[in-house]
Design brief:
By secondary structure, the protein is mainly α. It has two domains: 1-6 and 234-493 and 517-532, no CATH class; 36-215, no CATH class. The protein is 81% helix and 1% strand. The protein is built from 23 helices and two strands. The chain has helices at 3-35, 38-59, 62-74, 81-107, 112-116, 121-146, 150-174, 179-196, 198-203, 214-249, 251-289, 292-329, 340-352, 357-362, 366-391, 393-418, 425-442, 450-472, 474-496, 501-505, 507-510, 515-521, 539-543; strands spanning 523-524, 527-528. It has a two-stranded antiparallel sheet with strand order 1-2. A hairpin with a 2-residue loop joins strand 1 and strand 2 (527-528). Helix 2 packs across helix 6. The chain starts with a helix and ends in an 8-residue tail after the last helix. The relative contact order is 0.11.
Length: 551
């Protein structure tokens, strides 16, 4: 299987999970925006973003070390290499998160919560448990990514989201409708899902305190620190504007901004999360097995195809923004619709950065990512200080778009200097020009009902966008034909997967696969596949991915 097909196969698994989570979010988002007032929703969002910032610091970038050092440890001839690697990163993350949360909890009575603009100190205190859980949970999920357990990853993600929504609703409607109840529901469910996977790791010998390697811990620290700095700057870039909105405009305005940002984030998750989870592991395998040229071609083609979809999504978001906000967040949040186009463009630009990270990470230039993100976060802070007092909430949204555009330009220049690949600039200009035209035409489509208006405008824009590109771009025609052939092939394979009792009863069905057949399966076009045969066999993991045994 080619690297591009592997990317889309793994991305489809992640995409299925992210779409399911997004649909659950579409259920819970309207519910919570109607339960809480605009001000309470803004305060709740402030706590969630504070937890996010503390979690990034607690992880210390070790989730990147999980991905970076996994191939050499999993394929090492030393049977203790994998347990040493994972135990060191897991317990190191746990110690850092516990120390950080303890220090922050001590600082709450001293005014740290007031400094952040948070008045619900009880909810903030219990939310610190989420920092520890999510830090350690990231070690689990990144290991799943590297072991290509895409279905298990997505299944747990979906089940956790369902359980979180259910428990929070029970607490809100049968106990009390407060921010504390909301946070408590998240803590209970996420703790349960974190604990349930520990026995699986323990049986594989990956959670042994005696296997902690302090020399590897130092190596992981030196590798992860620049990436942690970049991640902190990224969180400031992504979430820091909430604190400025609270300071300049108050909780009511923050509620509007948080609602618009939340809707834009759902779109970003669908577009960015599947590729982000699948892209870097596949890039590392292509780089190791096929070399530089194959990696360059892989990045060029996947970025071009991403751009086609991204422009269409932005066009739909711009035209349907008012109806989407009213439908999802209720009429009391309708004022937030003018923010949505700016935020969607900004978050789509942030998704583009994932194509320029692999080159820097492969060449161990993670500090460039930190520099770019730090510069963009400083730019975002400066623009918020400049624009918020003068033009209000739209200023924060504009600052987000400009900042993400700046980081894309910087990362592209740095990445292409070490791993250059072709960017189809003229094709991208065609996509944008077509998107602008169909966006303008889409404004003339009107239906009375908000949901019908969203469907009518969205269908009109995407259909016209695809039709125009099919007419003017031969590559788009080729992609559509391939997509049709792949879809038809999947339907045919699904229809042919019926048990044949005669084959099962035949002697050949019970005979072992010959050596020649194994060699054929293990190679594609003469290129050997990378197999992690150093991993111990475990039926709970390898045989039970499709079941709910671990969840």
């Amino acid at each position: 299987m080619s690297a591009l097909k592997t990317l889309y196969k793994h991305s489809s698994h992640y995409l299925g999970g992210r779409v399911a989570v997004m649909m659950l979010g579409f259920i819970s988002f309207p519910l919570f925006t109607r339960v809480f007032s605009v001000s309470d929703y803004g305060a709740m969002n402030l706590i969630v973003n504070s937890v996010l910032l503390l979690t990034v610091i607690s992880k210390f970038g070790f989730q990147h070390a999980v991905q970076r050092f996994y191939p050499e440890c999993a394929n090492s001839s030393d049977p203790d290499a994998l347990p040493r690697y994972y135990s060191t990163l897991f317990y190191g993350t746990g110690i850092i998160s516990v120390v950080l949360c303890t220090l922050f909890l001590i600082s709450v009575p001293m005014g740290s919560a007031k400094f952040l603009g948070i008045t619900a100190t009880g909810a903030l205190s219990i939310a610190l448990v989420l920092v520890i859980i999510r830090s350690l949970r990231s070690m689990q999920t990144n290991l799943m990514q590297m072991e290509n357990k895409t279905r298990l990853f997505s299944g747990i993600d979906i089940l956790q989201k369902i359980t979180v929504i259910t428990v929070i609703c029970l607490l809100l409607f049968f106990w009390k409708k407060t921010i504390f109840a909301f946070v408590l529901g998240m803590v209970l469910v996420e703790a349960l899902f974190f604990v349930q996977y520990l026995p699986v790791l323990s049986r594989r010998g990956l959670l042994s305190p005696r296997k902690i390697d302090f020399r590897f811990f130092r190596d992981a620290l030196s590798y992860s620190f620049p990436l942690m700095t970049a991640e902190i700057a990224w969180v400031v870039l992504d979430s820091g504007d909430r604190f400025f909105v609270q300071h300049f405009l108050g909780a009511q305005a923050l509620g509007f901004y948080a609602a618009a940002y939340g809707i834009a984030t759902y779109l970003q998750d669908v577009m960015m999360a599947p590729l982000q989870l699948a892209l870097f592991p596949i890039c590392m395998k292509v780089w190791a097995s096929q070399g530089k040229q194959a990696t360059q071609e892989f990045l060029s083609r996947s970025l071009d195809q991403f751009a086609v979809v991204a422009v269409g999504v932005v066009a739909v978001a711009i035209v349907t923004s008012r109806d989407v906000v009213v439908l999802l967040a209720s009429k009391k949040f309708a004022q937030a619709h003018e923010l949505l186009p700016y935020l969607v463009i900004g978050l789509v630009l942030s998704a583009v950065t994932i194509y320029f990270r692999p080159g820097l990470l492969i060449h161990k230039k993670g500090s460039k990512i930190a520099t770019a993100t730090l510069g963009a976060s400083i730019l975002n802070i400066g623009l918020n200080l400049l624009l918020l007092p003068r033009i209000g909430l739209v200023g924060a949204a504009i600052a987000t778009t400009i900042s993400y555009g700046a980081i894309v330009v910087f990362l592209a220049s740095q990445s292409l200097s070490v791993l250059p690949f072709k960017i189809e600039v003229l094709a991208f200009m065609r996509y944008v020009a077509t998107g602008i035209c169909v966006t303008w035409l889409g404004t003339f489509v009107h239906v009375a009902s908000p949901i019908l208006n969203i469907l009518a405008r969205g269908l009109f824009i995407m259909s016209l966008y695809a039709l125009v590109l099919w007419a003017i771009d031969s590559r788009v025609r080729m992609w559509m034909r391939r997509a049709y052939e792949i879809g038809r092939g999947m339907l045919q394979r699904a229809g042919s997967r019926k048990p044949d009792l005669r084959k099962e009863d035949s002697p050949q069905a019970h005979s072992p696969m010959p050596t020649e057949a194994i060699a054929t399966v293990s190679s594609v076009a003469g290129q050997p596949l990378i197999t992690n045969n150093a991993l111990p066999a475990n039926p709970d993991i390898e045989g039970g991915r499709e079941t709910a045994q671990c969840t």
